[in-house]
Each structure stands twice: as structure tokens, then as C-alpha cells.
Design goal:
Number of strands: 11
Order of helices and strands: HHHHHHHEEEEEEEEEEHE
Structural class: alpha+beta
Number of domains: 2
Distance between the termini: 42 Å
Shape: elongated
Length: 375
């Protein structure tokens, strides 16, 4: 059984909503991105629910499993699942095989085993209605991919063993079918995102405080800022769950020394880098990796009680997410999505703490999704 948005359900559900039988869904475009994302979320949610239900069923007495599976499919499975606005067509599609038209024990009269596992007339009709009522072609293809997964299972084990499948195994079959549906939806999302661009903005406000015994300065405040427009990094294979967006940019760093005895030299400075957004269609992981050499910079300091000044003291740059020293920062794949990383939680903060210094502040990452990308 399949469910496009609200297509959860089980073979026991029979109510259908009418839809144009011969209408063809339009191609998926940028305007369908949220529809596709919602369908993907639905498929993944249902997959998780059926997996959990399979575990529960295995713990039951075999005689109780069929009724429990029926009750789950009719009630719990579809709770909170909603279709994209404007979806029409049947509320669910069930895979029923042609073999179901044969009385038990008469399956040998069929032309072949393959014939027994073909879609029944009702499944063909329901799939046609679901396709006609889908918001776009990619969603329709995902519904069919789900049902084809059931058919492939029937063909692999044979019709009679398939018909007599234990309910716990049937629940796991749904897990596999929803995986096929999710893969088809991700493929549709990848195709839509081929026309998109994602602008990545990473801003850091970092405060470094040195050991109290330092007579020259008490700490450093550093402002880092980068904006990079990323585009799809080549065509993603159909088997790939994620698509990468990449682009080059510069990070502008402007450190300010604290304490009154030192001034910065060579600042602000720029460091080349590369922004990256990795997405599975639902969520995005963003990062900005510094590349190349850091420009020459330092500070000039006055030593209290002495005449003149000296320069050339090195200034350690903070290690944080904007320098690519941490893992990807996850956030939703939507325009305006934002995430904050606290510097005190970074590996660099732990290292500095051992030397009697501290690191605080934050790094903000935000994405602006434009689909289609401006020309």
C-alpha cells in the first residue's frame, strides 16, 4: 500500500476519493519543492512507524498479529500525516495481485507465476487516479515506485508465500516500499534543485580571553564574515541520497586586541575558502572551509614601564565552524533557515581551557534558497 501524503494505510481500507482518470500530472518545478519535501517527510515517517510496528508484532503471539496489524494500519499509522494542499485522488493505493482473484488452491490455473503477481485491475485503477491527482510527476512516480516494490517482493518469493506473509514481515515489507518511495521523491527533489541556488552566510563573533598573567593584552575579539552563493556541484547520480551545492568566496576577519597595550596590524584580512551545502532534500548541512594560507598579520605592543614598542607577536586564530574545523551544521532546507554554534562547545575551547585561556561567542549560519536561481 502506498500513500502520497495521506497514502498510508492498509489493505483493509477501501474508501476512494474520485479524481480525473485521464489527467496527467505536470512536471515538478520549483513551485513543487515544498510539496515534494512534505511527501518525503511523510514517507520517512511512515517508514519509521512500520518498522517500529514490526518489532511490536514479532513480540506478540502469532495468532494476534493479523488483527493488530489491521488496527495499526487503520489508525496509528496515518496519524498526523497530511497531503500537500490541492492533492486529489484516492486516499490510499493498495497492492492487490491478480492472484487474489483465484480461489485458494486454484492458483495453478494461472498462465504463470508472474501473472499472479501482476497488478490487479483495482490497483491499476487506483494508481491511475493517484497519478492524476498528484501535484506533480515526481510524486506520482514515487507512488508507483512504492507499489512496484510490493510487486517485486511478490515476484521474488512467489504468489502463495507472498499472500501468506506473516504480519510482522508485511510491516517490514512496507518499510522497504516506503524506502523506494523516498528514493523516488529524492530524485525528483534533486531534479528541481538543479535550477536552484543557495546563498550561504556564515558570521562569527568570537571572544578569546588569555591567561591573567599576560601583561600585554587580556584577550581578542574576532569578527568573521563570509557570504557565498552555491550552485549544484554537478549532476547527482540517481542512487545518491544527497546533492551538494558548492561555491568559492572569501572570509573577512577583523580581530581587535583587548587590554590597552597592543594594536592590530594587517587587519582586517581576507582568507579564501569554499562554502558547501549538502542536502538530502529535507535537511541541509552547511560548512565553510578555509583554503590556502592566512595573510600576514599581528600586533604592535607597548610593554608597561618601558619606552618604545615591539611588533610581530603572533595572534592565534580561533578554530570554529567557520574555519571548517567542526562537522557540518544541520538545518532545514528552506529559505531563511538558521543555526547557531556556540564557540564554548567547540574542540578549540577545550584545548584553550587547558592553557588557562577561554573561548566564547558564536557562529551563525543561514541559507537563502532561490528556486529557480536568478539569471
Amino acid at each position: 500500500m502506498t500513500r502520497s501524503a495521506a497514502f498510508v494505510a492498509a489493505a483493509v481500507l477501501t474508501v476512494l476519493l474520485p479524481a480525473p482518470a485521464e489527467a496527467a500530472p505536470p512536471p515538478c518545478t520549483c513551485r513543487n519543492l515544498k510539496d515534494l519535501q512534505l511527501e518525503l517527510k511523510n514517507a520517512r515517517t511512515l517508514q519509521q512507524r512500520f518498522r517500529a510496528e514490526a518489532d511490536k508484532l514479532r513480540a506478540m503471539d502469532p495468532g494476534s498479529r493479523k488483527g493488530a496489524m489491521k488496527a495499526f494500519a487503520e489508525n496509528e499509522a496515518g496519524q498526523g500525516i497530511r497531503a500537500p494542499e490541492g492533492t486529489t485522488g484516492p486516499g490510499h493505493v493498495d497492492f492487490t495481485a491478480r492472484g487474489d482473484n483465484f480461489a485458494v488452491g486454484t492458483e495453478g490455473r494461472a498462465p504463470s507465476q508472474a501473472y499472479l503477481c501482476e497488478f490487479s485491475d483495482s490497483t491499476v485503477l487506483d494508481l491511475g487516479r493517484a497519478r492524476a491527482g498528484a501535484k506533480c510527476q515526481g510524486i506520482a512516480d514515487a507512488i508507483e515506485a512504492h507499489e512496484r516494490s510490493h510487486q517485486a517482493r511478490c515476484q521474488a518469493v512467489g504468489y502463495v508465500p507472498y499472500r501468506d506473509t506473516d504480519p510482522a514481515d508485511r510491516a517490514m515489507e512496507e518499510v522497504s516500499a516506503y524506502e523506494a518511495q523516498a528514493q523516488a521523491l529524492r530524485a525528483a527533489i534533486r531534479a528541481v534543485l538543479a535550477d536552484a541556488s543557495i546563498t550561504l552566510r556564515v558570521t562569527s563573533e568570537i571572544h578569546m580571553e588569555g591567561p591573567a598573567r599576560n601583561p600585554l593584552y587580556t584577550g581578542v575579539d574576532i569578527h568573521n564574515d563570509v557570504t557565498v552563493r552555491t550552485t549544484p556541484a554537478g549532476a547527482a547520480p540517481a542512487s545518491t541520497a544527497e546533492i551538494a551545492f558548492e561555491g568559492s568566496a572569501e572570509q573577512v576577519s577583523d580581530p581587535k586586541v583587548l587590554g590597552g597595550n597592543c594594536t592590530m596590524e594587517g587587519t582586517p584580512f581576507r582568507v579564501p575558502g569554499r562554502g558547501r551545502v549538502l542536502t538530502d532534500g529535507e535537511t541541509a548541512k552547511v560548512s565553510f572551509i578555509l583554503q590556502g594560507r592566512s595573510p600576514s598579520f599581528g600586533m604592535r605592543c607597548r610593554v608597561p614601564g618601558m619606552k618604545g614598542s615591539g611588533s610581530g607577536m603572533s595572534l592565534p586564530s580561533p578554530v570554529g565552524p567557520s574555519s571548517g574545523q567542526t562537522g557540518d551544521m544541520p538545518l532545514a532546507l528552506e529559505d531563511g533557515a538558521h543555526v547557531r554554534f556556540e564557540a564554548k562547545d567547540s574542540p578549540a575551547a577545550a584545548i584553550m581551557a587547558k592553557a588557562g585561556a577561554s573561548l566564547s561567542g558564536f557562529t551563525d549560519a543561514e541559507i537563502r534558497l532561490e528556486c529557480p536561481a536568478p539569471k
